[in-house]
Amino acid sequence: MKKFFGYVLKALGVIALLVIIFICTVLFSSRQEKQITRDFFALVAEQKFEDAHDLFAPALKAEYPLLKLRTDFENMAAFTVERFLNIKASTSEGIIMKGQLSTQTGCRSHFDIQFWDEEIVAFWVHSPCMSQDRAT
Question: Is residue 21 over pLDDT 80?
Fold first, then answer.
């Protein structure tokens, strides 16, 4: 009977350790995403748009691989943000940032990124190169 309880306690210890590791991983990744967003807004405020693009584009592609857009754009992975048109803050919609991007194929598009509590909740591209606007 003692052996049985020993095995149960060991199993519970392993499960507890795995749960702690999982929670720490989730918390760390969430903090990292929020830090990227904070850094991005700081660069935009300083009008360092190239630096903002270099920071944000890889994070955006990691969060939203843009698979739907790749079917409409050649080399979508190589887009550049040309400029940010405006940033609108609203209590009901969070923050919506509008800007213009271009691809290696020369297609110019407008994009909207919606943030809520410093996290991306939507990304839209409005493009004349596509049959219809796409949202992810």
Answer: no
Q: Residue written as tokens 């360092």?
A: 48
**Cβ pair 79, 64 in contact under 8 A:** no
Instruction: Give the C-alpha separation, 38 to 108, whole Å.
Output: 27
Residues 81-97 pLDDT 10s: 555 555 666 656 667 77
**C-alpha span between 37 and 59 (Å, rounded):** 9
Residue of 31, 27, 51 lying closest to 40 (CA atoms): 51
Torsion angle, CA of 34/40/45/48, rounded to 10 degrees? 160
Give the relative orientation of helices 49-63 and 2-45 as an angle to the nearest 10 degrees.
Answer: 150
55: which 2 tokens? 């920071």
**Which among 90, 78, 86 has a CA at the least distance from the CA of 110?**
86
